[in-house]
Amino acid sequence: AIPVSDFSEAGAAATQSDWRPAAEAAAAIAAALEHGRVEIADGQLRLVGAVRDAAGEAAIRQATAIAEAAGWSVASDLTPPPTPAAALTTFAIHAETGPNASRPVECVAGDKAEAGRLSRLAATLTPPGGPCAVAPDAPEGWGEAAGAGLAALAALPGGEFHLAGQRMRLTLRSPTKRAMFEQVATDLRGALPEGYQLTALAGVTAPDAPSPPAAPLDAPPPLRMTHDNAHLRIEGGAPDPVIGEAIVAFARASLTQGEVEADLTYGGGFDTNWRAAAMSAISVLARMESGTASVTPEGVKIEGAVEDPLAVTELHRALAEGLTDDRVAETRFRISPAQLAAKELLPPERCANDLSALTEADPISFAPGSSEISSGSDGVIGRLAKVLVSCADGRIEIGGHTDSQGSAGGNMALSRARAESVLTRLLGAGARLSLLSARGYGEEEPIADNATEQGRARNRRIAFRAVEEKEE
Q1: 84-134 pLDDT, tens per residue?
Q2: Strands of 461-466's sheet, edge to edge?
């Protein structure tokens, strides 16, 4: 029912044996939210956000009941949709026309079709009005009454129209003549649906004094982001905490390595396309070596260093896809030839030598007689994974070796199991399966004297070497 971006990873977290009811409920609930978050964790569905409308509220009740029947608990912190009574006070339209008109058009519609029709009517005013916002639970007959009022105002050389709930006010403004105004008001009163009341204010027939200028709308604070040394900082303004949390979560998913830090303030004045522009800027910034970005009502600016010059076109495309309005994109990408040369892929032989040098300086350790890697070797595993990112296509063998203590068959099996454990850990850290293989050598290739403890310690090792495809 809604666009989906999938940031999940296979095996990212352990799941309960039967998590499908919770997953299906989570999808149904997410589709019924205006904005929010649904989490599945520890046998519980956690819901935060605002419900779209009454139909969405019913869908959420049904989905949570199915999940609870399957044994899942539900923790909900959802804001219900506005009730019709509340809508009577929140639904309002205000528009002016004529040479002294200064206040911008304010327009709310009950659905997209109604918003389009009212927006087209507002566009016929002088000066023309902009698009209408959409909100749920409009009062009965709202679209018909609002359309009749805007059409009446468009027929006047000057005037003011205001509708709140079911109460409408039409005010004469210069240069409209009284007789014309009274005829338009009479026609409007006959066109209103049942329950709507019109007050026509025609006391001013002389040229109006200029209307006081409308108070300027406070521009929302810009969103600023800085990416440097695998660290992304986000600061500035966001519409509300739910959208702010969604932006930060998207940043963490986009930044594959490093940390995300956020310091956001919340308030009004944000347009409906702000979130798409912010996510587009984050997506581009996270794929750069370093840089800064800002998102304002006028546009998006991104500046920084890019590793691959061929990626610039793709970054521009990704940024453009997120700008669905009139925002202007401005980019300044820097490319360092020296940095690019330093990041050229290593041939397999060079890569294997660099990997072996790491394990010689900081050997991977295992529990005695076991293939379980000790926690103290997490650091060297991470450094090996970083080297593998720079390795060109080829084949690199992870070789397991033991000392001569124990049986030859047992040593062969242990060395193979240890090599496979290292392979599994490196794959989990992002290494390419096509690049690596594992093999056990047991006690067959000693590099030191097995007669001494020091020599045996050196022989118990993990080593790397480049191999030909035919050796597999």
Answers
A1: 433 434 567 888 888 877 777 888 888 888 888 988 888 888 888 878 888
A2: 436-442, 396-401, 461-466
443 touches 454 (CB < 8 A): no
Q: In sequence order, which ranges of 155-207 are alpha helices (DSSP H)?
A: 178-191
**381 contacts: CB under 8 Å, gap ≥ 6:** 364, 373, 422, 425, 426, 429
Spatial CA neighbour of 173 closest among 162, 164, 163: 162
| Tens digit of each residue's pLDDT (9 = 90 or more) over 326-368 | 788 889 988 866 566 556 678 889 999 999 999 998 999 998 8
Global confidence as pTM: 0.34
Provide CB contacts within 8 A for 317, sequence distance 6+: none
Phi, psi of 286 (to 5 degrees): -65, -25
In DSSP terms, 285 is beta-bridged to none
Structure tokens at 370: 């076991």
CB 143 within 8 A of CB 114: yes
Helix (H) or strand (E) holding 154: helix 142-154
Task: Look up residue 230 and give its DSSP letter.
Answer: T
What's the number of CA atoms in the CB half-sphere (13 Å) around residue 172? 20
Q: Which tokens sit at 419?
A: 């090599």
Q: Return d(Cα 404, Cα 453) in angstroms, integer.
A: 11
- Give the list of residues 6+ apart from residue 72 with CB closer than 8 angstroms, or none: 21, 22, 25, 43, 44, 45
pLDDT score recorded for residue 174: 83
445: CB partners within 8 A, 6+ apart: 399, 401
In the numeric block, which tokens belong to residue 79?
């804001």
In angstroms, the CA 290 to CA 231 distance is 9
Helix segments in 330-430, DSSP class H:
337-342, 348-361, 378-389, 408-428
| Chain segment 145-188, per-residue pLDDT in tens | 999 999 999 999 988 888 877 778 888 888 888 889 889 988 99
User: Is the Cβ–Cβ distance between 412 and 442 less than 8 Å?
Assistant: yes
Q: Which residue has the tokens 């589709």?
A: 31
